[in-house]
Amino acid sequence: MPVMDGIEATRAIKAAMPDVEVVALTSVLEDASVAGAVKAGAIGYLLKGTDADELRRAIRAGAEGRVHLAPEAAARLMREVRAPDRPEPLTERESEVLRLLARGRANKQISAELFIEEKTVKAHVSSILRKLGVRTRTQAALHAVRAGVVSLEELGEESW
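That's the Two-component transcriptional response regulator, LuxR family sequence above. Prediction below.
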């Protein structure tokens, strides 16, 4: 599509006419594209080259509010849904704070070492905990070791 892609078009159609059902007819068969179309509001997803009878069935299903996906699209959607969540990456500064946190540094020490305000350190720690899906600094430190952000050798005896 010259002006927008199919996902954007689906989103625009659903925003303008929420009661209209969209059946996507596309040549794109990628996990993210199928999931994106469904998230945008498509009730059906077919590939170009689908025969006329199948296209009619999909349009009827959509008109009745039923989902109709090409088998290949259904498989892609399942793979996307089953894929583990991709955690939001830490910023460079958050990674620095995590390294120091894992070494046992308190917020005040981290702020002094990085030349930032203590409240900024607290904000970074909160963001780190949220992004890693953990509740405590200890869990974050353990995650840092497991993920290879900090090695046990790097921790040395200073944190034990």
